[in-house]
Amino acid sequence: MGQALSRCIRATLEALPDKGRETGLVIAALNGDAYRAQDWGTALARVRDLNLGESRQWYPAQSFGEVGAATGLVGLCMAIRAFARGYAATRGVLVWTAGDDGSRGAFYVRAPNRQSFEDGRK
Questions:
Q1: Rounded to whole angstroms, how far apart are CA atoms 6 and 15?
Q2: Among candidates 74, 93, 73, 68, which has minimal Cα distance to 83?
Q3: Which string of b and e fits 77-88 if b means at least 16 CB within 10 Å?
Q4: CA–CA dist 1, 31 (Å, integer)
Q5: CA-to-CA distance for 91 and 66, rounded, in angstroms?
Q6: Sign of torsion over alpha carbons 60, 28, 4, 18
Q7: Among 45, 59, 72, 91, which is most exposed with the fewest C-beta within 10 angstroms?
Q8: What is the pLDDT of residues 61-99, one digit of tens each?
Q9: Which CATH number fits the domain that encloses residue 29?
């Protein structure tokens, strides 16, 4: 419980130059299944040194219903839209996914540099 997910999250964040310190939002693959909630809670305890418990959390299933294997892609779209619309309130978003087969994954989305984003519009 929580081992594979915490390893994915730790590996994702530790690969970043800032070690994920700018993570203010976690988009999580929680969908009402008790085992996913227990996995997430246990993973949070295992990575408590990364301070993810202080980050806001969004759940694609809460907004769109169960999206299954598309959860990671939906999480990516949610992060990009939140950056574009200005309501992400953070520069970094961690997205994690969980398969019914026990597979776990995580990736990180960083807000674009606003200046280069605006320069690209010209």
A1: 14
A2: 93
A3: ebbeebbeeeeb
A4: 17
A5: 27
A6: positive
A7: 45
A8: 888 888 888 899 999 999 999 999 999 999 999 999 999
A9: 3.40.47.10
User: In which domain, by residue range, is 110 found?
Assistant: 3-121
Structure tokens at 82: 């939140």
**Amino acid in the structure at residue 122:** K
Question: Using CA atoms, how far apart are residues 27 and 24, in angstroms rounded to an integer?
Answer: 10
Domain tally, the chain: 1
Q: What is the pTM of this model?
A: 0.88
Note whether 20 and 13 are within 8 A (CB): yes
What distance in Å separates the CA atoms of residue 27 and residue 2, rounded to the nearest whole number?
16
83 DSSP β-pair partners: none
- Own/partner pairs, 17-21, CB within 8 angstroms, 24+ separation: 18/92, 19/50, 20/50, 20/92, 20/94, 20/108, 21/51
